[in-house]
Write a sequence for this structure.
């Protein structure tokens, strides 16, 4: 995208944005599949995100809790890309965010919580797999820091799992249905910082295009959906997305 606003920003009042790990790397949260991603550097670490292994192996749970503790560091804050989407919403454009991330940074940046659909759940809450009791994850992590490296449910002693979708689990059917509906009714569908290799979330791109939306992909690496895109932006998300959002605001003014 050059310095002039592209034609696809004109006349857009409904924007759906699918975001992946790449949008949060400027906040200090590493992605998973990139050249320096968590799983690229340590392929075995992907096993701790598998539901079957998590449930069966206390050692996997201990490693999992240590890993996600990094997402709650004091220095993890929303970055320019998160803020740009919140500002676009505040300007009056109908923006719906469909995020594969579980870090809550979109909401912390100012996006309306009801307009952020967390496809893969949230790290904010942990749920007991036995009795269903919930506990705020930061509170669980305080117990981890105090020495409870496999923290049990406070009510029944069962296994706690953050309220995220792990490998081997299905997305919530109601959440997926709503996401598909949002994609199909969008005029512009932005896929930002996602490898588009995890289904069914990645398939939202095709659902949007099939219903007439313009697909724009903002990602460092090629994706399986590039051929459907009107434009592919390879530059850093922290500069590309604020410029796209500014162009949308300007075109709507």
């Amino acid at each position: 995208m050059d310095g002039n606003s592209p034609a696809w920003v004109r006349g857009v009042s409904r924007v759906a944005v699918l975001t992946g790990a790449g949008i949060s790397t400027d906040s200090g949260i590493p992605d998973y599949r990139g050249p320096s991603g968590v799983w690229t550097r340590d392929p075995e670490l992907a096993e701790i995100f598998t539901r079957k292994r998590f449930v069966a192996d206390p050692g996997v749970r201990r490693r999992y809790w240590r890993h996600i503790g990094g997402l709650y560091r004091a220095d993890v804050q929303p970055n320019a890309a998160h803020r740009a989407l919140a500002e676009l919403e505040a300007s009056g454009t109908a923006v719906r965010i469909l995020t594969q991330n579980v870090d809550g940074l979109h909401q912390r940046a100012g996006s309306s919580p009801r307009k952020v659909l967390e496809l893969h759940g949230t790290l904010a809450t942990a749920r007991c797999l036995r009795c269903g009791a919930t506990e705020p994850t930061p509170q669980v992590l305080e117990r981890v820091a105090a020495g409870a490296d496999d923290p049990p449910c406070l009510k029944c002693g069962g296994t706690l799992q953050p309220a995220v979708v792990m490998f081997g689990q299905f997305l919530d059917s109601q959440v997926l249905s709503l996401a598909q509906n949002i994609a199909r009714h969008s005029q512009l569908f932005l896929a930002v910082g996602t490898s588009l290799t995890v289904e069914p979330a990645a398939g939202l791109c095709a659902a949007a295009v099939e219903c007439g939306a313009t697909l724009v992909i903002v990602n460092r690496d090629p994706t399986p959906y590039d051929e459907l895109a009107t434009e592919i932006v390879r530059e850093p998300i922290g500069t590309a997305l604020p410029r796209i959002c500014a162009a949308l605001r300007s075109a709507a003014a």
Q: What stands out?
A: The mean pLDDT is 90. The beta strands are 14-19, 94-99, 116-118, 121-128, 134-136, 160-164, 188-192, 214-218, 231-233. The chain has two domains: 1-27+78-120+171-253, 30-75+121-164. The first helix runs from residue 38 to 41.
